[in-house]
Write a structure and sequence with these properties.
The two termini are about 35 Å apart. The protein is an alpha+beta fold and about 450 residues long. The longest helix is centred in the first third of the chain and has 35 residues, at about 90-125. The chain has one domain (about 1-455): Orthogonal Bundle (Cytochrome-c3 Hydrogenase, chain B), CATH 1.10.645.10. The strands form 6 sheets. The chain has a 3-stranded antiparallel sheet with strand order 1-2-3. Helix 4 (about 90-125) packs antiparallel against helix 15 (about 435-445) and helix 9 (about 225-235) packs antiparallel against helix 12 (about 335-360). Helices cover about 45% and strands about 15% of the residues. The chain is built from 16 helices and 15 strands.
Length: about 450
């Protein structure tokens, strides 16, 4: 007998509805519904191009800084394509990386402790898990504290977080002091200690030698990652949550991750191979359509016609990370591997943040003014960025300094968008076959759900 169950998820960014079709005590089909349309692309139309630097960070309250960085890149590409030479100082590139990194680490810590671990309280019901209980749990509260600390690094350089607009065409508007850099270094060091003592259960240098699951268990002490892994194995979460085993990363950031497309083997990423499909979306090229079978405000995004996962796991695979290549061979792209990859990225990013803070040269410029007025700029530009949840793209078309068209493709659209004529989205595919509603929700959360970005 077929049964349909519809749930509005909590503990996600924004609102997402999960519609499950059950048959023989298993999920036969899954629909991820983004119910609220926001319309930033329409808000931007006919605005001066520089207004995008203020408007796009409001797309999301968690990864708004990533939207600022990718907007800056799109505008700088627009200027260059219009024949205007843009010089971006090395200091500006370094600080853009640092502020983006702080936002990603903040997101990953909060996601793991606020969204992932509380699910195990329901699933396992062990008294030892009370430390992860929302609001009351001491480990939950500690994680919130340190996630707030790391994002202060972004505020030091950008003036505020969230919704900062300090990154502009030609550089950044900040002019940091030695004291501010030292303060940022101290914050990063404190979060490294938190990560070592609470998340991975060993020092970072030792962790970087880990090559597989058994190796990690042998080398680590008591910690939250080990707790997560043991619980996942106990409840067979290493066998569920598998999507398409295809991974997309559109940017390379030195010392952190490389760009590429991995299907059977890794290939170069080419933006022109991306398509957006509106067959099952309320939002179409011709306007709003509530027709039959349409169920989400998001569109389906495909690369060479295929759905790809974009995420920290995708970044680890496209970077040919030895640990995750081994985990993928053992467990495929399952729930347990997807979650671990996001925690692993915290470590890689904190190391990169320390290196970049030491490379800031206060005697060099942070901003070089573009040699043209923005009102003279016409043409097209594309910005590419890796945000907390995966690959983020902004595309702009402008005429005489005014935005004629603005297009945003977010990581959550890649992962959580609706199906197309041939394929489910990666997250929908990952849920099919699971045997409990709670596990279905947990698998969906493993993609780090953000509905406000999905519908932007």
């Amino acid at each position: 007998m077929t049964k349909i169950q519809k749930t509005v998820l909590n503990r996600v960014e924004g609102e997402i509805e999960l519609k499950l079709v059950w048959e023989n005590n298993a999920v036969k089909d899954a629909f991820i519904i983004a119910p609220n349309f926001r319309g930033f692309e329409f808000i931007l139309k006919n605005k001066p191009i520089l207004d995008a630097l203020v408007i796009t960070p409001r797309v999301c309250g968690i990864c708004g800084h990533a939207h600022l960085i990718v907007t800056t890149k799109a505008l700088e590409d627009l200027y260059k394509n219009a024949g205007v030479k843009i010089e971006t100082p090395q200091n500006a590139k370094i600080i853009r990386d640092i502020t983006l990194f702080s936002e990603i680490v903040q997101n990953h810590i909060r996601w793991f402790y606020l969204f992932v671990l509380p699910d195990f309280i329901k699933l396992d019901k062990g008294k030892s898990l009370r430390k992860y209980e929302p609001i009351r749990g001491y480990q939950w509260r500690k994680a919130v504290d340190y996630s707030s600390k790391i994002v202060k690094v972004s505020a030091i350089f950008s003036g505020q977080w969230p919704h900062s607009s300090y990154s502009v065409v030609g550089g950044v508007t900040c002019d940091p002091t030695t004291f501010e850099i030292t303060e940022a270094e101290a914050i990063v060091d404190s979060v490294i200690r938190f990560t070592e003592e609470n998340i991975i259960g060993m020092d970072i240098e030792k962790y970087l030698t880990v090559s597989n699951l058994d190796d990690y268990f042998e080398k680590s002490g008591n910690c939250d990652l080990k707790t997560f892994l043991k619980l996942s194995l106990k409840h067979k979460l290493h066998k569920v949550g598998k999507a398409y085993h295809r991974f997309l990363t559109i940017c390379q950031i030195e010392d952190v991750f490389e760009k590429g497309i991995t299907k059977r083997k890794k290939k170069d990423f080419k933006p022109e191979k991306i398509t957006e499909i509106d067959t099952f979306s309320f939002l179409t090229e011709k306007g709003i359509n509530y027709g039959k079978n349409r169920y989400s405000w998001a569109k389906a995004v495909r690369y060479e016609g295929l759905p790809y996962e974009t995420s920290p796991l995708a970044r680890r695979i496209n970077s040919r990370d030895n640990l995750f290549i081994n985990l993928l061979d053992q467990f495929k792209d399952s729930y347990i591997v997807r979650v671990w990859a996001r925690l692993d990225e915290i470590i890689k990013i904190l190391i990169a943040m320390k290196k970049r803070l030491k490379n800031i040269n206060l005697s060099d410029p942070f901003y070089i003014k573009p040699p043209a007025d923005y009102r003279e700029i016409s043409g097209e530009g594309t910005g590419l960025c890796e945000a907390a949840r995966g690959s983020l793209i902004h595309q702009i078309k402008a005429e005489n300094g005014k935005i004629k068209q603005y297009n945003i493709i977010t990581p959550s659209t890649w992962n959580l968008g609706p199906r197309c004529e041939k394929y489910h989205s990666p997250a929908e595919k990952a849920i099919i076959g699971v045997d409990s509603p709670l596990k279905a929700e947990m698998i969906l959360r493993s993609f780090d759900v953000c509905s406000v970005c999905t519908t932007h």
